[in-house]
Amino acid sequence: MPQAESPLRYAKDTMSRPITLLCVLMLLSSPGVLWSAQAAAPMPIPVLQPQVVARYPHDTDAFTEGLQYLNGTLYESTGLEGQSSLRRVQLASGKLLAQRSLPRVFGEGLTVLNKVVYQLTWQDQVALMYAANTLKPLGQQHYSGEGWGLTNDGVRLIMSNGSATLTWRDPNTFAVTRTVSVTANGVPVTNLNELEYVGGQVYANIWLTNRIARIDPQTGRVTAWIDVSALTREVQAATIQKGQTPDGNDVANGIAYNQDKGTFLLTGKRWPTVFEVKWP
């Protein structure tokens, strides 16, 4: 038969329990342990909801690939083979002010730097250059791989190619000056598409999603998501109301910044609306 426990041993074990608990609490409160716990559970990335402050008409034939706003005018690059173009559009009315058709290439991202419009092509590995005020051709630059989104930080061009990489390029030679990999909590974020550089941050549409990533250009880390689901639903509802079926390719793609008002202009491929929005 088992031997009964000694009362003295029971009393010793009982007395040791508070001491053991105290040691565990002290260990957990040490800086190293706290750092490890934080590393194991990264902080969630905030999701921002855009608030619509105005709506402007947008050409539903425009398969938007690039967008920039300057002095009341939208510079817009549209895609699709045989339908690609470079446009200057009056924001308030949607009126087409000037256009240059690109029948032999698939237009992609666009940016304006030092009065020059740079327009990417998808698979032709060519960046087209134009005078910003007249859209007169100024030449072209070459690059390897695909062209998706394009913006600038005031000095360099910043380009995406559908991967998780952002590439900085010299605007005069298109030579690569640096790259950064974009991650969200350590996970690569691919399908980076249309870009806009605002206030030291890069904003990128994530292709085939309703999210825009706000990216720290120094580290490549996503610091916030902007959820444009409500805008997409409004566009789809308008399409259905017209008796049409929403096209799965007509996704959000187009980010421009109105510096005078501190607002963003968002649209999508063949969307009927340019949304002027703000978020925290």
Write up this protein.
This protein is α+β, with helices and mostly antiparallel strands and 280 residues long. It folds into 2 domains: 7-40; 47-278, Neuraminidase. 16% of the residues lie in helices and 44% in strands. The protein has a 5-stranded mixed β-sheet with strand order 1-20-19-18-17, with no helix packed on it. A 4-stranded antiparallel β-sheet has the order 2-23-22-21. The protein has a 4-stranded antiparallel β-sheet with strand order 3-4-5-6, with no helix packed on it. β5 and β6 form a beta hairpin.
Question: Structural class per helix/strand content?
Answer: alpha+beta
Helix content: 10-25%
Anisotropy-based shape: globular
If you compute it from the alpha carbons, what radius of gyration comes out, rounded to the nearest whole angstrom? Answer: 26 Å
- The separation of the N and C termini measures 73 Å
Uncertain runs are 1-29, 31-38
CATH class of the largest domain: Mainly Beta
Q: Would you tell me which CATH topology of the largest domain applies?
A: Neuraminidase
Number of helices: 3
Q: Could you say what the CATH architecture of the largest domain is?
A: 6 Propeller
H and E string: HHEEEEEEEEEEEEEEEEEEEEHEEE
Total beta-strand segments: 23
What is the mean pLDDT?
Answer: 88
* Superfamily (CATH H level) name of the largest domain: TolB, C-terminal domain
Strand order of the largest sheet: 1-20-19-18-17
Number of structural units classed as domains? 2
